[in-house]
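Good morning C.,

I know you're traveling, so I'll keep this short. The sequence:
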Amino acid sequence: MISVLIVNWNTRDLLDACLKSIPGDSRGHEVEVIVVDNASHDGSAEMVRERHPHVKLIEPGSNTGYARGNNLAFAASSGGYVLTLNPDTELEPETLAEALKAMDRHSEAVALGACQIGTDGRVQRSVRGFPSLRGIIGELTGLAKTYPKSAWGAYQLPAFDYSVEQPAPQPMGTFLFFRRSALDALSGPPYDEQFPIFFNEVDLLYRLSKQGGQAWYIPTVRILHHGGEGTRQVRKAM
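The tokens, ready to paste straight into the viewer:
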């Protein structure tokens, strides 16, 4: 089974489109969908109940944040594969099938990132390295652009080729396809709730890497990404 976990806050129409794009099964794997609605006031929860009755809806009654929301969904899930997915995305028809095939090809992979296509049709930059002092200095000084394949470019990875299937230290949390066994091997829930909205997936992937896990970027796993529709509602706070 594949468990798709979505944490939603006030993105009703985008969430509706996202849910419509998720198949009921893929390559013989049943797909369960779990939505945690963080006290939306735009009718998101009502829409899920009315239009997507097969979806498991969790309503904690307050805005728990992204990390806590994902942990609640993970605790309610049962799939051998777990996909954390943002509600401002839509899956292409073969997205989950391609992710499963990639997991078969790469037995060492604990997580996969997708090729994210913006509404303008362009591939979005969605892979970074783990933060380091030299990498951050490289971004601040422009050395990352001058020496993109050096340690100065090791954070935002300006030389990363998005047409090539390859290991990827830190794919963006918009779409992360995990082996459940890797998440179960961690102590406690997957997401550290001290990172309520940003950097929680960076922390999770870093902890997995310290256990020998590797993440991959798969260009044939493709999604449409509208981008930042939840956080832009409260941009200053974010």
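Safe travels,
E.
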